[in-house]
Amino acid sequence: MIHGTISACIACLSWGTGPAPGHVRDMVRLDRPGMTITTNVRVAPGTYELAAGDTQAAVEITGDDITVDLTGVTLVGAGPGTPANAYTGRGITITGRNVTVKGVTVRGYKVGVYAEKAPGLSIADCDVSRNFRQRLKSTVQREDLSDWLYGHENDRNEWLRYGAGIYLYRCPDARITKCRARNGQNGLCMVRCDRARITDNDMSFMSGWGLAMWRSSDGEIINNKFDWCMRGYSHGVYSRGQDSTGILVYEQCHRNLFAYNSATHGGDGFFLYAGNETVKKTGRGGCNDNIVYCNDFSHAAANGIEATFSHGNVFVANILDECTHGVWAGYSFDTVIQGNRISRCKYGVSIEHGHGNVITGNVIADTELGVQLWWDDDKDLLTTPFGKVHDRCPSKSNTVTNNRFQRVRKGIRLADDTGSAVRGNEFEDVEVPVHLAGDTSGTQLALDDGLQNAVVDESTNGVSFQSEGSKTSRGQDRYDMAAIEQRLGSKHRPSAFLPDGVRRGRNQIFIDQWGPYDFTDVRAFPSKITGGNNAVVQLLGPESDFRVTKVQGEVRVTPTEGQLPAKVEIDTTEAGLQPFGITIATDAGPLALTGTLLSTQWTVTYYGWDASTDPRSGDAAWHGITTEEPLSRAETSELDFVWHGGSPNESVPRDHFATVATTQIELPAGKWDLRTISDDGVRVFINGKEVLSNWTWHGPTEDKATIELAAGSHRFRVEHFEIDGHAELRFKLEPARP
């Protein structure tokens, strides 16, 4: 690669010995990759195709007190047709003090803009959309566990493997404003960047994290959009999130202010975790004393707010609608949860092993369970350094006051929670105001007259009630919201929230192989299908009509017409392997679906085994396992089993079981791609000959073999063993691709 220096080029053109501070010279072109900018400069507008390999950069900016104006400039790293998971390099790297970069569009790189040791950095009005993202393996019908993110380690910048629009490392006092990132994996990652100010950005429709922070404290994150940062979701089928989130706060991030942000439709809306240093190493620390004020975290697959193993955090006046948990704050203490609106969630506020937490002044409506506080004998966590330092993490001394519960089946549940205070709460159309279980000694429980008889008391010690008379007496809120407003000042008013009338709700989350759909184009997911006896396809697009116009092959499509976005189901009408082609007319043009379905009948038998007959020890051990009487038998139309940590059925143990599945398939002559996903060992035999084997202890793993078969009926035998933990067995067959 040829490297050049823009400042040297300027000198050659006799433009003087150097610019005055703040003066920007016109114009410079980026005529080759690897050019270095060391002075104030304006780059000539235009599109520059500048590839970068691995950790290289298309443009390097280095120096102190310089401004680089890239208004109208687009940097493109990858050529047409390059998949997003193959993007490499960095569009721009920045080092130096008080560097300002503005106006650039960067796409097609692993990282759009990377800055290291750049205190006082300012990045404004930049678009870093369409950079790296992983290809997801989950489908409409089935989650693939390999899609889960792992953000727990980043002291050596492990997050870089996930890419980013902007990635900052050791850049204190950074200012990121009015930037945009969409259709990538991560919007903005900040690592060891104290006192950052992140305002008025739009980093939505990401397949990982909108904003991710690591060891970054004393920042202000105000009035940003981090909507639809999601993966691991198929509406009505599975709702996992896979640790995607609008805002991620990991590993010793303290005293940050998050206000007026919209982070809806995420895996979580806001995800705060103390980090492995606290949980697995020292037992101390956390992500503490952060203020989260007046944000919208609605429509999360998992939690509107998750905050764990930390203390002193304040969650005030947030909107938390239609999440699984409005707030999940396990193993946290001295947390304030105040004045939030929590509605249409399965659970309102859930805290296990927490103490000194204050839940006050919230409106919790249309949930199954409003507030639940509990302790359980969680041996795995209680034996961690955190569990030991915090004396087995009791649930105690919490306060639940002045909340309003509306249309909630069960208002408050305390289980093995001691010394807590429950008073001043209002209950409207609530079946069970309070449910007590286990040891609830020392509980101060005050209820309005007429409600005490509705309490379910299953506690081991009994609780004495305090009457609040005929009318609830509401006390003072714990946290002064006026102080937050004063800190924000009048120049900050929430404008990032989704406007009225736009799409919203978990039924408006659509994920394909690249992440969340942004409602801008028309597409089908998946468009290439390898299924069992049926398959489900998402037809995605702005609201408009669709109609199935052509079906080739022995398959049936339902429905045949309707309105986008929609799901259609494809079923086989004949036994065997059925190739098909489907054309669907839309206002934006035709969609083509192709693939194969396999309609066959599998006979499945399950066996148990122990360490003395480990299948990996040899064929004799496997023979000994599978010649015993099966624990269970079943018939199924496809091998598509994800048992997670469970077992196939109540007759089979969750660990140390074996599976044998057999079928007969009529096939024409040709080459075939056979794929399995397994956890643990798997091998496949066709007509008695082994054609695929991964006979090891492993996590969910895809294995593939291409085989050639004569026309006729062929006997398939799939063997599988499970050792412990997650269990999975999936089988696919399709014509080999040229």
If you had to describe this structure to a student in words, what would you say it looks like?
The protein has 738 residues and is mostly beta strands. The chain contains 6 helices and 68 strands. Among the domains are: 82 residues, Immunoglobulins (Immunoglobulin-like), CATH 2.60.40.10; 136 residues, Jelly Rolls. The strands form 12 sheets. The chain has a 17-stranded parallel beta sheet, with helices on one face. It has a 16-stranded parallel beta sheet with strand order 2-5-8-11-13-16-19-23-25-27-30-33-36-40-44-46, with no helix packed on it. A 6-stranded antiparallel beta sheet has the order 60-59-62-67-64-65, with no helix packed on it. The N terminus is likely disordered.
Uncertain segments: 1-22, 470-476
Q: Strand percentage, roughly? A: 35-45%
Roughly how many Å apart are the termini?
35 Å
Please count the helical segments.
6
The computed structural class is mainly beta
Number of strands: 68
CATH fold node name of the domain at 600-735? Jelly Rolls
Q: Specify Rg, calculated over alpha carbons.
A: 29 Å
**General shape:** globular
* CATH top-level class of the domain at 600-735: Mainly Beta
